[in-house]
Amino acid sequence: MTTVDLSRAQWRKASHSTANGECVEAAAMILVRNSNAPDGPTIACTPEDWRTLLDQVRNADYDTAGPFTVTRRADQSVNLRYITGSEITYTPAEWHAFEHGVHIGELYLP
Predict the structure, then answer these.
(1) Which of 71, 68, 65 is nearest to 46 (CA)?
(2) Are the CB atoms for 79 and 36 separated by under 8 Å?
């Protein structure tokens, strides 16, 4: 089982929670993994950081500083690293499929 880093989650609770804070809390997180390695590493990021990555990919702007670092290696595989240190490596074909999905709008989540 993959451990998910929740350090950047923005938790919310109802304004009517009790004085001692007893309430259900919720946080919106985007979970990223390699579909060919579902038991491999998972990156948990905020929706805002996910949108930033999608904008970088859509604009082929991998040099702008952001929450994700995208590095193409000598073998053309792509390393995706999040600011928490979590990272996933993709084959060239996997990354190309991701880029295509971004360009046609398949991966924009609410």
Answers:
(1) 68
(2) no
CA-CA-CA-CA torsion for 104, 48, 109, 77, nearest 10 degrees? 50
Report which residue type is found at 45.
C
Reading the block at residue 83, the tokens are 């600011």
Counted residue by residue, the chain has a size of: 110
CA-closest candidate to residue 29, choices 86, 92, 71: 86
> Tokens standing for 56?
């970088």
User: How would you write the pLDDT of the chain (110 residues) with one tens digit per residue?
Assistant: 456 777 777 788 777 776 666 777 778 889 899 998 888 888 999 899 999 999 999 999 988 889 999 999 999 999 999 999 999 999 999 999 999 999 999 988 76
The rounded distance, in Å, linking the Cα atoms of 18 and 16 is 6
Q: How many CA atoms lie within 13 A of 43 on its CB side?
A: 24
pTM of the model: 0.81
In which residue are the tokens 């970088």 written?
56
